[in-house]
Amino acid sequence: MSSESVQGGTAAESGETEELAQHEAQRFMGVFADFQDPSREWRRLFSELLGTFFLVLVAAGGGVMGQAFPNTISRTAAVVAPGLMVLAIILFMGKVSGAHLNPAVSIAFAARGDFPWRRVPAYIVVQLVGACLAAWFVQAVINESASYGANYPAHGYTSFEAFLMETVLTLGLVSVILGTASGAQNLGVFGALGVGGYIALAGLWGSPISGASMNPARSFGPDLVSADFTGYWVYVAGPLLGAVLAVGFAYILRGRGGDLAALAAAQGELPHPARHSDQA
C-alpha cells in the first residue's frame, strides 16, 4: 500500500470524524433550544413527578407491603426493587427530563453546570409531590401506615451515624450519575444499569443502618403522609452533603462540567414536533 493511499485514507477518516462531530453539535444545539422553550416545561415537570411517584411507590411500598404480608418481602427484595425501578425509569423517560427523581441530583447537576439553577426549585417541588402521592397511594391501598416505608436511623445507632451513612452512600450515587453523564464516559442507556445497580448495591449494604434513602424526596413522602418527621434532617443533610462532595470529586476527576453530553443527560431531550415532521 502506497503512502499516498494511507494519507488519503487518513484524510477521509478525519473528514468523517469532523462531519460526525458537527452533526452531534447541531443535534445538541437543537436539544438546548428545546430545553429553553417554556411551552415544553410542563412535560419535563410531569416526567419528574411521575418518575418519582414510581420510585417511591416501590421504595416505600416494600416496607409497607412487608408489614401487611409478613415473611413475603425480604430485605434483599425491598432494597433491590428501587434500583430496578430507577433503571426502568431512566430508560423510559430519561430523555424527557433527565430522570433526576431526587432533589440532591438536581442540585448536583446545577452545581456541576449541567442544569440551570432557575429550574431546580420546580423540579424539587414536583419530586416532593410525586413522593407524597406515592406514599398516600401505598397507605390507602395496602391499609398500613406509610411510616413502615419511611427511613429512620436503626435502633442502636445515632442520627449522626445514620447521617454519615447517607452522606457516603449519596456521594457514591451522585458520582455514578455525574460520571455516566459526562462526555468522557457517556455510557448512553448503560448509564441506567450503573445507576440502578448502585442503588441496589447501596441498599444491600447500607440499609440496615440508615435505610439507604439517598433522596430527600423519597424520605419526605412517607414522613408527611404518616405525620412523623423523626430524624428527617438526616435524609436532607446527608444526601445534600454527599451531592456537594460528589460535585467536588467530579471536578477533580474530570475538570469543569458543562460538556454537551452532560448537558443533554441532565436536561433531557424532547423531540421537536416541527423537526420530527420534517424528518418524516
3D structure, described in words:
The chain has 280 residues and is an all-alpha fold. The chain has a single domain, classed as Up-down Bundle (Glycerol uptake facilitator protein). It is built from eleven helices and no strands.
The proportion of residues in beta strands is under 5%
**What is the name of the CATH superfamily?**
Glycerol uptake facilitator protein
What is the N-to-C succession of helices and strands? HHHHHHHHHHH
Mean pLDDT, rounded to whole units? 84
Are there runs of 5+ residues with pLDDT below 50, and where? Answer: 274-280
CATH architecture annotation name: Up-down Bundle
- Outline the biggest β-sheet: none
- Alpha-beta classification: mainly alpha
Radius of gyration: 21 Å
Q: Which shape, going by the Cα principal axes? A: globular
Number of helices, counting only DSSP H or I runs of 4 residues or more: 11
For the record, the count of structural domains works out to 1
State the total count of DSSP E strands.
0
List the helices and strands and how they pair.
Elements: H1 3-35, H2 41-68, H3 75-97, H4 103-112, H5 120-142, H6 159-181, H7 190-210, H8 216-226, H9 234-254, H10 260-267, H11 273-279
Helix pairs in contact: 1-10, 2-3, 2-5, 2-8, 3-7, 3-10, 4-5, 4-6, 4-9, 5-8, 6-7, 6-9
